C-alpha cells in the first residue's frame, strides 16, 4: 500500500473515539448475541467498491466487513448461530427497501443523514469520510472553492456529492459568493466511474469521497486531491428501527474492532477492483470471467431439466470455483459429480465438461422431485436439494427423521433440519447450503438488474424472466 493512500485511509478512520464505548444495550446482550435471529437480511448496495463480482465470486468492502461481523457475532455461540442473507440492490433503493421491511439492515457506504434518521436507525459510524475536490494531476490546481467558482470550472457530482454541493451553493448565495458550477451525469453513474474519467481527462474536476479516492488510489494513480470540505461525513450501517438486537450487535462489533475491520476489508478488496471503475451487475458475465465461459453449457443443461442455470452456476462456484477439477476417483469436474451418481443419471463420462454439467442438472431435477410436497415451501425445497447434493439424499432423509423425533419440523430447514444437521453432521453441510444459496441469491439479484440470462426457470421449476426466482435463504 502506498504511504499516501495509507495516510488518507487512517485520516478517514480517525475521530471515531466516541464509538469505542458501545451503547448500554449492546453491552447487555454480551458477545453471544442470543437475541439475534437465525438469519439477518442484509440489503447491500451493488457497486464497484461495496459489492461486485469477479470471476463469478462476490467481493467488495461491505461484503468483507460484514463477513467479519458474522464471524464476530457467532463467537462463543456453539451451534446456535446467525447467518447473513445478502440481498443486493441499487444504492438508491437501500433506505426505502429497509424502511418497508424488506431487510433487517442496509450496507453501502451510507452517509448518516438526519433525513434518513426519520426512517431508519444508524449504527455508530465506523468511517469519518471527507468529500474532496479531485482532478487529474495534469489539470490546473484550484486550492479552494472561491478559486474554483472564479475559474468557472464545472464540478462533476453524483449521488451524495450532488446534495452536498447544492447545500454548499445555498450557503454561498447567502454569503453573497459566486456559486460553483456543476453538472450531474445521468442515473447510474457512480463515484468510481467519475474517478476513472478524471484519471483519463485533465479537464475533469469532481467532488468525491476521500475514502473512495484512497481505496482506488492504486488504480487511478493519475488523480489527486486539491482540497476537502471542512465538515466530515460519518459513514455507518442502517438498521430497521424494530431490529434493536441487530443494531446492538453491530455497535458491539464496531466498538470491539476499533475499525481494524475497515482496513482489513480495504486490503482484501483492492486486488479485485476493476481497472475501469465498473463492477456492478452488468459485469457478472464479463467475457473474461469464468462464469461466462461455463454459462452456455449450464444454460443448455438447465433448460433441458427445467432448472435455473444460475443455480448450477452457484453450485459450480462452491464446488470447484468454476474450475474443471478432474479426478480419477471420486467427485470430478466443475460440478464435482460422483461418477456413480453420473451413471445413475445416464451420463457415461463425467470428466467431460458438458456431460458433467448435464449429470448435475439431471441429479438436481431428480432431487427436486424427491422434495416436492405441499408441506415443503419452495425455499425449503431448495435447501433440501442443496443439502442432498452435498451429502446425499439418504443422509438428508436420516436428518429429517431425527428432526421429527426431536419434535422439530422435518419440512423446514432453518432452525429445524438445519439444527439437527449442525448437531449431528457438523457444520460442513450447513455451511455448504449457506454458501451456495448466497451465490445463487447474488446471481439472481444481479440478473434482475441486468436481464442476465433472459428467460430462466426457478430452482423449483417455474418460468421467470428478469426477476428473482427464489429467495432461498430468507
TrEMBL record:
Its main localization is membrane
Family annotation (Pfam families)? SBP_bac_3, SLT
Q: Which UniProt keywords apply?
A: Cell outer membrane, Membrane, Signal
Q: Cross-referenced InterPro entries, in alphabetical order? A: Lysozyme-like_dom_sf, Solute-binding_3/MltF_N, Transglycosylase_SLT_dom_1
- Give the Solute-binding protein family 3/N-terminal domain ranges: 48-259
Classify the source by domain of life: Bacteria
Q: Which GO terms describe its cellular component?
A: cell outer membrane
Report residue spans for region: Disordered: 448-474
The record, for SUPFAM superfamilies, names: Lysozyme-like, Periplasmic binding protein-like II
Which part of the chain is the Transglycosylase SLT domain? Answer: 298-404
| Location within or outside the cell | Cell outer membrane
Tell me what topology the record assigns in the membrane. Peripheral membrane protein
Signal sequence segment: 1-19
**What family does the Swiss-Prot or TrEMBL record give for this protein?**
Belongs to the transglycosylase Slt family.
PANTHER family found in the cross-reference section: MEMBRANE-BOUND LYTIC MUREIN TRANSGLYCOSYLASE C (PTHR37423:SF2), SOLUBLE LYTIC MUREIN TRANSGLYCOSYLASE-RELATED (PTHR37423)
Q: What is the protein name given in its UniProt record?
A: Membrane-bound lytic murein transglycosylase MltF
Amino acid at each position: 500500500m502506498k504511504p499516501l493512500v495509507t495516510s488518507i485511509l487512517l485520516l478517514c478512520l480517525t475521530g471515531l473515539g466516541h464509538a469505542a464505548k458501545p451503547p448500554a444495550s449492546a453491552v447487555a446482550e454480551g458477545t453471544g448475541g442470543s437475541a439475534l435471529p437465525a438469519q439477518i437480511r442484509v440489503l447491500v448496495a451493488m457497486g464497484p467498491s461495496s459489492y461486485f463480482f469477479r470471476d463469478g465470486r462476490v467481493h467488495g468492502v461491505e461484503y468483507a466487513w460484514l463477513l467479519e461481523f458474522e464471524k464476530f457475532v457467532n463467537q462463543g455461540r456453539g451451534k446456535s448461530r446467525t447467518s447473513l442473507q445478502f440481498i443486493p440492490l441499487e444504492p438508491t433503493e437501500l433506505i426505502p427497501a429497509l424502511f418497508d421491511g424488506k431487510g433487517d439492515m442496509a450496507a453501502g457506504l451510507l452517509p448518516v443523514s438526519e433525513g434518513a434518521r426519520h426512517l431508519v436507525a444508524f449504527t455508530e459510524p465506523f468511517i469519518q469520510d471527507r468529500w474532496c475536490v479531485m482532478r487529474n494531476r495534469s489539470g490546473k490546481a484550484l486550492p479552494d472553492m472561491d478559486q474554483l467558482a472564479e475559474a468557472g470550472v464545472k464540478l462533476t457530482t453524483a449521488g451524495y456529492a450532488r446534495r452536498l454541493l447544492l447545500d454548499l451553493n445555498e450557503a454561498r448565495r447567502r454569503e453573497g459568493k459566486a456559486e460553483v458550477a456543476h453538472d450531474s451525469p445521468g442515473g447510474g453513474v457512480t463515484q468510481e466511474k467519475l474517478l476513472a474519467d478524471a484519471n483519463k481527462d485533465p479537464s475533469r474536476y469532481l467532488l468525491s469521497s476521500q475514502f473512495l479516492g484512497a481505496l482506488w488510489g492504486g488504480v487511478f494513480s493519475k488523480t489527486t486531491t486539491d482540497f476537502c470540505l471542512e465538515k466530515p461525513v460519518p459513514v455507518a450501517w442502517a438498521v430497521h428501527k424494530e431490529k434493536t438486537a441487530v443494531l446492538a450487535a453491530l455497535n458491539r462489533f464496531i466498538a470491539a474492532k476499533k475499525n481494524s475491520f475497515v482496513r482489513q476489508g480495504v486490503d482484501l478488496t483492492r486486488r479485485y477492483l476493476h481497472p475501469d471503475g465498473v463492477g456492478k451487475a452488468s459485469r457478472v458475465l464479463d467475457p473474461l470471467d469464468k462464469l461466462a465461459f461455463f454459462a452456455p453449457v449450464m444454460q443448455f443443461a438447465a433448460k433441458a431439466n427445467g432448472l435455473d442455470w444460475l443455480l448450477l452456476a452457484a453450485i459450480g462456484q462452491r464446488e470447484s470455483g468454476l474450475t474443471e477439477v478432474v479426478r480419477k476417483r471420486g467427485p470430478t469436474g466443475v460440478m464435482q459429480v460422483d461418477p456413480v451418481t453420473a451413471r445413475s443419471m445416464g451420463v457415461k463420462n463425467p470428466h467431460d465438461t458438458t456431460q458433467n454439467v448435464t449429470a448435475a442438472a439431471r441429479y438436481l431435477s431428480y432431487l427436486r422431485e424427491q422434495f416436492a410436497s405441499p408441506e415443503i415451501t419452495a425455499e425449503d425445497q431448495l435447501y433440501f436439494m442443496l443439502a442432498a447434493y452435498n451429502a446425499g439424499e439418504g443422509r438428508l432423509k436420516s436428518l429429517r427423521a431425527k428432526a421429527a423425533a426431536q419434535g422439530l419440523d422435518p419440512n423446514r430447514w432453518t432452525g429445524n433440519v438445519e439444527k439437527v444437521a449442525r448437531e449431528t453432521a457438523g457444520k460442513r453441510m450447513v455451511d455448504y447450503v449457506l454458501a451456495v444459496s448466497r451465490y445463487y441469491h447474488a446471481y439472481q439479484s444481479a440478473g434482475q438488474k441486468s436481464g442476465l440470462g433472459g428467460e430462466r426457470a426457478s430452482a423449483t421449476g417455474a418460468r421467470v424472466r428478469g426477476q428473482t426466482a427464489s429467495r432461498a435463504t430468507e
